[in-house]
């Protein structure tokens, strides 16, 4: 065995030659064989990039980012968000891409890197399920609005007789726009339409959630049919759809941006969004919200990134893709923020409100109130733009939920390899539809806020900390960087090393501890939840977090040997499953690691790499 390692201009070049017996196949390994067990690959690298864009650039940018910025002082939120992006978002995104591509495994099986942390993968899957349940209801809302937009007069543009203190979203030239009595707070017709007609929202959920709305149930069902059709054949079908899912929304978003900035009063809203309040930088709550938004937008800490990259060829240039996606995601959030705050500025102008904060209540409704309100002011064929806009939201939502749903399906298929992918996809889609019914009830928005807070925020946040701790602090920064350099043929810079080893985990731990210590009772529209709802929320959080110790205990129990401490130490080391799946690539990797260890004056521990050494020996003598 001959190993040569060279470092030149930030590049790492590794040459490994292994002498095999005459009966061993000597031909060069093809890229398409880099994944064992007939695991499919993307048809080309562009499909992977488009899929990552459609996953990360979604409703989180159009819906969640503007109202998160809105709730945290507008422009004051941008500085923490950008800092968090570079110190937490990008490092975590790149780390997860590496995990998936290096092992060709989903977000659970990839924990062969540190087997006792297996529960992190299952806990993240639970968080993903929580997000899927309510995310599909948002997609159903976009489909509902798209359908009602086909009417001669957009239904949210005018007030109904029973609505008090209502002002039409579409100004009328021949009638007075504002009620004579303006002593009470005015409400736009687009907001009342969403609350009174679409969601039939309840003021309180003490007496129950109510029954699912028929029309929203039908659109929810139709949404899940589309989702199933996209994911039924795995990356073979979702990869083809990714081109449209990733690119089409930008056409509509740019058109809406141009319209928004030309509205009267838009400048005030945009300035509110961009003007920073430096005092907010000392508020850790704002930093916590920046981390949560970064995770939600990039889909970090919930599994899709690992899952998508696991279908890559081993030599795919993921560094480039990680930088493109994270940068484009931020740019899209900024464009969406400018667009919606321009609309809010115009809305404040129409309602004769001086403070932008008083214009509309934040939350899910923001995307279904402020955007429709802007479309109502389009002078030329607003119906066309409405259909186009809500179709864009539908496409964005489908692009993201396809990644989330595929993560769950991949986890199941990795565990039960004989099960057909489309069967698992169908069962999961049916389950997603049934769980989504709770969100199309009159109390659905309350439950959405509750599940997002406990299941989609704190569970994901806590497990992301354990994720980077398990990979970098336990498996080891140098071990991980060696693996990265072997796969990417690129030296890991000091930026990544510093972020992974210290800045990212420490910042996340400090912000998480602070947010847990200062946590306040959850409210929706400034109304507190019933005690039973809060208990249910903490149960959701407990179930997600409990996956970590329970699966860790299960692994130790099922792999018990000699003593508890020995078993525990073994469970904190990478197992024989960790590493490239292709046998020849794996052999080269083992030889590469041995050469590095010898070069550093170390001797590989036999109990850590004994299996690998035996595998190399088996290959060299022609054994399987």
UniProtKB/TrEMBL annotation:
Residues 1-38 are annotated as: Disordered. It is found in: Membrane. Belongs to the sodium:neurotransmitter symporter (SNF) (TC 2.A.22) family. SUPFAM superfamilies: SNF-like (SSF161070). One of its GO terms (biological process) is amino acid import across plasma membrane. This is Transporter. It is a multi-pass membrane protein. Unusual broad substrate spectrum amino acid:sodium cotransporter that promotes absorption of the D isomers of essential amino acids. Neutral amino acids are the preferred substrates, especially methionine and phenylalanine. Residues 1-10, 28-38 have a biased composition (Basic and acidic residues). The lineage of its organism: Eukaryota, Metazoa, Ecdysozoa, Arthropoda, Hexapoda. Na(+) binds at residues 57, 61, 297, 396, 400. Keywords: Amino-acid transport, Glycoprotein, Ion transport, Membrane, Metal-binding, Sodium, Sodium transport, Symport, Transmembrane, Transmembrane helix, Transport. One of its GO terms (molecular function) is L-amino acid transmembrane transporter activity.
